[in-house]
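Duplicate of #3305? Posting structure anyway:
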């Protein structure tokens, strides 16, 4: 369905809900799913419009919302639906999530007292959502899976294996790693699957509205263990909560859980860190897929936070089972300094200039926009043919002097400057945010590095834009 179609349907739903004129529709930032959100504002009323193209997911959201509201839980109200055309109109809970509140009020890396109180409220309410609201809940609508079972766990672990370990080229023995996955799954299944598992219980999905926490984005819920949601919240990588506060909230949760069921606290805590591990692996797989595969830069920016959580886990938790190949791979990640491209600034034209070797393929576009230029430097004189220059790069003076003497190089760069200047001028005029320019040569060491450096200097001198330079074969960044 075209964007115009579902926007008009949402406008019609709003008009049916409240007959007001002059309805304004503003798109909201898209997260990791295919759902699209809009804020609709009339003369006196406002609501959130949702375009959700997955009908089964929408059915789960509607069923869960109806049930949770009957239980008196803080979830959005559904004002109107057009299920046939994948559109919903729900209550507007504002713009402030728990994660936003945490980041805005954080002082010297620690959450504010008010933020801690909100976390305490959320953690205190979680057992009711998991245990009490689980009663009479229709789990037949769960999608894409009815429970967090062996298959679901294996999906998450393979997500991590294929979209993080392999994309980052972390070495591992596949057969031995699968054996460790089997052991981890068997351990986690012992915790049972008889409760409601929110699945994506994180501070981004908790809104602060009228001084209270409200829950959203629970459509992926299913039967599952208790520990998973708590691990998702307290070890949310972007939140970077102090570890002492995480432990405090763990035992606050156990105090509130006693109101509903009797549990073995020691076993719960032992099992809890296993769920912290599998959630962390799932998150790293998601960041790898959304970042390295789909090239969404803000997911890439979260990877260092995930690695920091991993380092803490490896240093502080002793698991009840031996998982040597998995631990070997995780320690390999923890020891790496993973280079992450700088975030693109909103409202500023960022020009990414890369040098690369054609034998390794052209660089990815982390902005997600595609397009740009690839200039082939292999027709230029090559200093790499001579032993004297082999130990140098295009940033070293001997290579610079060699290429500066060649008329063909100067002519080549003059043409490149004219083409790129034209694009920068038009991109800025049209309000575009990203342009990528790539220089390739045989080894990615001499000619492409020299040309990328010269273009970056030219742009820096002649345009008011942000320049990011990456020499891919040398793994070196320059920011201007």
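Output from current build:
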């Amino acid at each position: 369905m075209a964007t115009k179609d579902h926007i008009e349907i949402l406008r019609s739903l709003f008009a049916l809900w409240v007959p007001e004129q002059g309805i304004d529709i503003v798109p909201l930032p898209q997260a990791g799913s295919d759902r699209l959100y809009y804020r609709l504002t009339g003369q006196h009323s406002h609501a959130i419009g949702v375009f959700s193209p997955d009908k089964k997911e929408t059915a789960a959201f509607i069923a869960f919302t109806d049930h949770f509201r009957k239980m008196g839980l803080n979830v959005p109200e559904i004002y109107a639906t057009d299920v046939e055309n994948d559109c919903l109109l729900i209550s507007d809970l504002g713009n402030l999530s728990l994660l936003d509140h945490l980041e805005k009020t954080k002082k010297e890396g620690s959450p504010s007292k008010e933020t801690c109180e909100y976390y305490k409220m959320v953690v205190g309410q979680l057992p009711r959502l998991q245990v009490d609201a689980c009663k009479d809940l229709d789990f037949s609508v769960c999608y894409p899976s009815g429970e967090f079972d062996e298959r679901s766990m294996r999906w998450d672990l393979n997500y991590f294996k294929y979209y993080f370990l392999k994309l980052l080229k972390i070495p591992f023995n596949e057969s031995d790693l699968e054996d460790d996955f089997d052991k981890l799954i068997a351990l986690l299944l012992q915790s049972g699957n008889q409760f409601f598992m929110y699945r994506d219980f994180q501070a981004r999905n908790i809104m602060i509205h009228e001084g209270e926490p409200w829950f959203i984005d629970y459509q992926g819920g299913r039967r599952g263990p208790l520990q998973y949601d708590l691990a998702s919240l307290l070890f949310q990588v972007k939140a970077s909560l102090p570890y002492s506060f995480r432990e405090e909230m763990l035992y606050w949760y156990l105090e509130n859980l006693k109101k509903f069921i009797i549990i073995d606290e020691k076993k719960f805590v032992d099992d809890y860190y296993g769920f912290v591990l599998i959630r962390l692996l799932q998150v790293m797989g998601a960041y790898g897929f959304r970042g390295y595969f789909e090239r969404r830069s803000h997911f890439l920016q979260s990877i260092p936070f995930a690695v920091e959580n991993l380092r803490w886990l490896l240093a502080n938790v002793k698991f009840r089972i031996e998982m040597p190949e998995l631990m070997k791979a995780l320690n390999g990640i923890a020891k790496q300094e993973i280079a992450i491209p700088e975030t693109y600034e909103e409202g500023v034209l960022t020009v990414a200039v890369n040098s690369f070797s054609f034998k390794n393929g052209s660089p990815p576009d982390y902005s997600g926009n595609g397009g740009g230029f690839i200039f082939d430097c292999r027709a230029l004189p090559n200093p790499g043919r001579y032993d004297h220059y082999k130990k140098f790069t295009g940033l070293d003076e001997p290579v610079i002097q060699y290429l500066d003497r060649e008329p063909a190089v100067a002519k080549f760069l003059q043409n490149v400057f004219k083409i790129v200047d034209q694009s920068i001028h038009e991109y800025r005029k049209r309000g575009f945010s990203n342009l990528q320019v790539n220089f390739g040569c045989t080894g990615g060491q001499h000619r492409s590095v020299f040309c990328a450096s010269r273009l970056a200097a030219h742009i820096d001198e002649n345009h008011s834009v942000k320049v990011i330079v990456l020499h891919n074969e040398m793994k070196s960044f320059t920011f201007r």
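Confirmed duplicate; merging threads. The chain has three domains: 3-90, 98-335, 350-479. Residues 3-90 form a domain with the Phosphorylase Kinase; domain 1 fold (CATH 3.30.200.20).
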